[in-house]
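Re: weekly structure request thread

Next one in the queue (454 aa):
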Amino acid sequence: MPHAVLLDSGDRDANKGRYDILSALPERYVEITSIHINETDKSGQSLNIESIEALKKRLAETAICQPADATAATLPFTAGWIGYATYELGYRLEAKSGSLPSAQQDEALPLFFAGYYQWAIIIDHLKRTALWVYKNDIAQDTFDQIDNILGKILNTAAPAPTSATTFTLTSEFASNTTADKYLEDFDRIQSYLVAGDCYQVNYAMRYQASFTGEPIQAYRQLRESVPSGFMSFLNAGNDSHILSISPERFIQASGKRLVTEPIKGTSARHKDPEADAVSRHNLLNSAKNRAENIMIVDLLRNDMSHHCTPNSVKVTRLCDAESFANVHHLVSTITGEIQTSSTIWDVFFDAFPGGSITGAPKIRACQIIQELEPHQREIYCGSIFYASDNGEFDSSIAIRTLLCHDGTISAWAGGGIVKDSEVEDEYQECSNKIGRLLDAITPDNLGAIQTEND
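Done, posted below.
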């Protein structure tokens, strides 16, 4: 269905994995491209929005609606905005001040998309229930379509995948960054670090392969292999689908209470429990990885302070080791309270892109990324979010995220480079992050990754 979205929780902890959210058919949607900001309704009528500030106000207007039903009031989503922001939105946001050149729009995705959804299916894994929630003034044609589909689902067995829908890679994944280029760019970043331009630069590589079939089948394989807390599948239109298996929260808000949980610092998982425990212990006690994490914590404390009440920004967890399906990570938690004069959209746009995937200081790191990386990141290192009318907001950092477009599937992996980084370790970290994902959708007769210098 048009703009179908699934915000999916594979990591069943109480904080991140209780609910799934499914919806489609937004009543209207807003888009930012490199040349315009528009709002479009279901009939195709389009209205120009004059500025980012005007867009923030437009997005915030719906958050005053509180559901009358007491059960709905406690849900993460009742009705509201769901969408995504690509990494390149950051260049558009900064271009107004002359800090960064405006990025070229990629044809696959707009820089920002948010649909206003009047209904959702909410899966509660704690209570083991499924709820259909919708606004009282939901469009009648939308209500009738969903009612009809749900009736069929309840009385029909799920169809088995056919040869026409089975997802199949038709080429090996190939990186556009050779080993030689990675070494050259690593040395260039080191020269910037020595010169004092920045403290850390997050450098990423892109991998691509061709495919046939339905992207939803690839998503099912990924969620089975690498379950995470912030998984999502989006039909983005224009023959584009977003498959995200992200473990990282960007910004969460409940009313005025604000939380961000940056990830920085990685070590590999091992099948042998003893080796796995050693890897986790070494990460937790790594001075380099802790320094990287603390740099980003300071950056995000600064980002949050612009819109939080004085003295409310606190670091409640610093450099805690968390274990995921494919890697161990260092995770920190920062909280705050949004000041009365600001909205969650002020926080989101002004903190975007997340500092954990840029480096620090952010603007100079982004300039270096744009100089060296031979590709656009698109949805990778952007964000996927929802903003419910009942005051709930949550968003991910779109790492471990793939994009299917026009028969090509793209995946990215990156890591933060600092002065005492070793090039072999950084290159291996990228392989640790991406390898499990690519293996999950790669047939046995194809290699997962191919580079020119391997």
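The chain has a mean pLDDT of 90. The domain at 5-450 is CATH 3.60.120.10 (Anthranilate synthase).
Next request, please.
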